[in-house]
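Annex B. Sample input.
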Amino acid sequence: MHYRKVPKTGEELSILGFGAMRFPTTEDGEIDEPRAIAQMRAAIDNGVNYVDTAWPYHNGKSEGVVGKALKDGYREKVAIADKLPQWLVKSREDMDKYLDAQLKRLDVDCIDYYLIHALEGNSWDRSVELGVKDFLDKAIASGKIRYAGFSFHGVAGDFIRIADSYPWTFCQIQYNFLDTENQAGTAGLKYAASKDIAVMIMEPLRGGNLSSPTPPDGVQEIFDEAKIKRQPVEWALRWVWNHPEVTLVLSGMNEEAHVEQNLAIASEAEAESLTEAELAIVDRVAARYKELMQVACTGCAYCMPCPAGVRIPGCFEFFNSVHLFKDKEPILKRQYALMLSRKFSGQAAYASQCIECGQCEEHCPQHIAIPEELKRVADFFEQQDLQEIVNSATAQTAE
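Annex B, continued. Sample output.
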């Protein structure tokens, strides 16, 4: 296992972190606790020292399973990362309530790495108004958390603004070879590193999609041109780890074979270890994926802000993903309803909110007919009852 240092503390973290969002489940949808605990402990026994969970994962049951896995001396071997569900917070007091509940669920006295969960511009502004900076200061001073960070799902400009708004120790961003310009992107990664903010990577495989042994048409043929043959999962992970600005990569492992495979890759992957020829192959693979996308959006966010509140790059990201990875359609439809809702973002951001003002088209460097494309997005995703999905999810995770 390779390790990298957290710039502001000097602590060494394994480059592979265990993500507790996709535990193995039983036939009735509940967490298969014996398997999940065994998988997590196997990873820790082989050098993983960072475990990431959150309030809503597995309908609020992930934290409890993590707590059980870290009994019998395993707590002392790892750093725990957990997250404040900012979309459920209604007051400054709520922040303390959720943190105390998470400490109880995990059965620990302190959470090492504590994030404000799923931020973008509006939800950060709302959290600030409710007193999140005071909350973090006091939680650190009291010893309930050691380090403060945030996870991010907005546009690049808001990422930089949030990064500048508090003395963060770390952040968490979505990053993979398809998302170099979406959300925080490469610019955000490098900006965080320039401020000595550790960067934890989520979705390195885009929910497992980039690890498929049968990738979309034309992708495998490009990989086959490489001198060193690798599985798609290894190409994707090594590409992220190739960036020295990356502190660690989170993987939601739920198969024993996945744990073994990821551990093997993490034992070899080093920063700046891919050759120029190999990086060129990954670039060509990314280009092929983008050729297959429905909308030629790069996620640059020049179209933002939208006067109607539509998160345009996010809408197109969901639309492209659901057409590239058709087996993920149910999950992506649910995520569209949740992540673009007022509950999660502080302001609804759905495609159907478009008022066709044309302002976005004037600024789009790709010359996309954005209002027309947003109609396609709305027609695809918004035939379902979005509010019912949001209410169901928040009712489950608020308990």
